[in-house]
Amino acid sequence: GDPRHEESRSGGETPLFRQSCRLWCVYSEGVELSKLSELQRAIPLPAQSRELVVGRTAQPAIFWDTLVPDRRLHGTVSREHFKVFQHDAVPGGAAQTNFVLLCTSLNGVLLNSKYIGKGEDERVLQHGDVIAFAASAESTGGQSGGMRKPFIFFSFEVVRVEVVQGPPLPSLPPSLPAPPAEAPAPPQAVRGAGEGGSQLRPPENTVAGRWRSHDAGPSVPEDAIFCLEVHGDQVRMDLPSEARQLFFCCEVGAAMLPKLRIGRNYQHLFWERVLAPAVLNGDVWASVMAVDQFEICSFRRSNPTTAERQDWRFRLHVLGAAGVTVNYSVVCNAGDGRELQQSDTLSVGASADCGAAQRAPAAAGIGAPR
C-alpha cells in the first residue's frame, strides 16, 4: 500500500465515515444472479455525489444488457428512469441523512409493490426497501390493459463509506468501503464457506445465520436472537430438530442490526443437510428458492443501553419472485413486508389454498432460541 496512507493510520487518526447508498439487484427475470459479480448487480451512489440516476443511459449499456436480456423488457427501462437524492436533515439539532426517490419515467416504478408515476412526490427510502421495474402487458406483446408485471427488483441499501481527508492519493479511490464494525462470527461448529462450491456470502449489512455441525450438541449460541426451524414433506424429518435450526445471532448492544438474508446459496451447506437429495438435484429448489428469497429484520422495542429485558419485533421482507406464504394462508409477493410473531410459519413453493403445507418443499417456523 501507499506508505503515506499507512503512516496516517499508524498515527492514531480515527477514520471518518459518511452514509451512502446503493441498489443491489435481488431478482431479474431469466438471469442467474449467483453467476454475476458484485459490479454486475450493484448501482452505487457515485463518490462525492448526492444524486444517483438510474436508467438505460445512466449506467453502462453492458449493465442493462446483462440484467435485462429480454429486448422487449429492455425497452421499458427509460434513459433516466428514476433518481435517488441524498438530503441532510437536522431534526432536533442532530445531523441525519435521508434518501428520497423521484420517478422520472412515464413507465413508473414500484416501491415496495406500490406504483409511483412520473411527477409524483418524492418518496422517503428506508434501508431494505425494494424498487422494481414493471412492464405493462402490451409492451411485452400481451393484451392492452393488463396488470404490470415486475421483471427486475433492487434492494435499497444504506452503507457507510470512508471519507478520505486531505489531497487524494494517486493509488487510492476517493472513498473506500467502511469495514464492518465487527466481522461476523463463523457458524457454530459449521463447515467452512469454501466447501461445497456453492456457498455465497450475503450482501453487506446482512448475514446468513448460523447452524450446528453434525456432531454438535443441543447448545444454543449465547448471542442468538431467534431461530428458524425447517420442516416439510421434502425436509429430512429424520434429523433431530436441533439439526434443522438456523439461528440469527448478533451482539445485543450493536448500533446497527444486520438482517437475516435467506437464499438458495447463502445457506447452501445447511440446505444440503436438511433437504431431500431429490429436491436439491432437480429443478424444484431453484424454481421456489431464489438467490435472494427473503430477509427478516429485527428491531428492539427497548433501549439497548439500559438493563431492560430486550423486547424484540421482527418483520419479513420478501425478495424472490416465487414469494413466501405465511401460516399457509397469506401469500406475500416480492416487495411485500409483514410483521412476524413467534411460531409463525414461512413456506416457499406453496399456494394459499388447502393442502399448501403438504406441497411446500420447505417451511420454517420462527421462534425463540431454545
TrEMBL record:
InterPro entries: FHA_dom (IPR000253), SMAD_FHA_dom_sf (IPR008984). Residues 172-216 are annotated as: Disordered. Signal peptide: none annotated. Transmembrane segments: none annotated. Residues 172-187 have a biased composition (Pro residues). Residues 52-116 form the FHA domain. Pfam families: FHA. This is FHA domain-containing protein. It comes from Zooxanthella nutricula.
